[in-house]
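User: I'm putting together notes for a lab meeting next week and I want to include a structural view of one of the chains we've been expressing. I don't have a solved structure, so I'd like a prediction I can at least talk through. The sequence is below, exactly as it appears in our construct file.
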Amino acid sequence: MKDAVECVICNSRRLKPRKALVAPCIARRVWDRKSFPVRLLECADCGFAFFSPRLEEDEEQRLYRNYRGEAYQQMRYLFEPWYTKRFNDSLFCDGTMSARRELLKRILAPYLAKTKVRSILDFGGGKGELIFDLVRGADRYVYDPSGTEPLPGIEELETLTDCKAHRYDLIVCSNVLEHVAYPRDVLRQIADVASPGTAIFLEVPDEPPFSYRHKAKRLLQWTVLLSTRPMLALSLAGPGIVSLMQEHLNFFSPTALGRLMSSMGLEIQASGSYGKNSLMNTKTLWSLGWQKGAQARWHPA
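Assistant: Thanks for the context. Below is the predicted structure for the 301-residue chain, given as structure tokens.
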């Protein structure tokens, strides 16, 4: 773990700390210990919020090894009785992923109409479910360090060197940046494998961690825990209970997402948000930009 002294998006040192706790499941999975205090920092300049200390590479690997697999679900259920197998399976079921693809198609439609997309990379995309039938006839690739076997027709790229061996018209990175300690490092990797003119689409949850809704959700979960795992619930009682460090290490604002793209020299074409996901009950922020260095082809109609 490494303490953060500045915002990992904009480098500001104007950070407001709040008390937080590592969720019991994460503490057990990553460090094999009980829950312990951390801080939730809010950047006064870009609105980005993130936990400190930050995970280091080996800790991230332990957290996301066999992510969403059977052992992962069972461990989470041990500490979080609402995280059932049915819920875990629903996150990436055909219906959920089909709905997400349709949303993405609608967002990209004005841009897809202006260019021919021959090759797509899903960066951190698991099995590649999000790009499965996103653009008909396009070559499809997925890069995911977890080593999940991709869907038929999608080529797995095992290393960043493998990624650089191809040229992409579109790179999609969906619901990844909220999980990593240093989002700029991940976006730098994406920019490194992109070509001049490659369109890059980023998508992250819009879940303000200081909102009344977020705090009410955490208190409700604690109440459920109190009735089902009372000793565990009592061990977590305190101000940090409303700011549990779970798998989402970062909380983006529209400003923070825009600054992240600009920090890599990407030219932002469009950005926005769309409505609540029926499963996660949260909105989603998105931003579309391109790699500079060639005349951009992604102008909207």
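A couple of points you could mention at the meeting. The first helix runs from residue 24 to 31. The first strand starts at residue 15 and ends at 22.

User: Perfect, that's what I needed.
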